[in-house]
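SEQUENCE-TO-STRUCTURE ENTRY
===========================
What this section holds: a protein sequence and its matching fold, both as plain text.
Question of interest: how does this chain fold, as expressed in backbone structure tokens?
***
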Amino acid sequence: MTSRGRRRAGMVRPYTPTGGRAAPTRRTLDLATLLIASPDKPLAGLDAHSHRLMLHCLPGVLSVAEVSADLQLPAAVTKVLVASLVDSGHLHSRNPVPAAQQHDHQLLERILDALHKI
């Protein structure tokens, strides 16, 4: 265990940004979950970390992994913060389209037919 004098400057315990919460209220969040900010929700009253997260998400759609990396927060902490913001209506979460549903089968068949003709 490190003494207080030897701790890195700027190091924050993981439970500090979450207000002591250890687990997200939503089990559906993963690193690929897409986050969409509600621009009409007031940011007043949010804690500093949630406010920073919302400002980061406002320009567009970001994944939980992107937010976590950009804000330099552990993924588990980011998920707890995101879950609280989804619960309050500040964020909307959306699971990404599964890989199996992303491809247009007709297009792939036309490409395969064209390759067979070559």
User: Anything to note?
Assistant: The first strand starts at residue 34 and ends at 37. The two ends are 67 Å apart (CA to CA). The chain has one domain: 26-117. The CA atoms of residues 41 and 90 lie 6 Å apart.
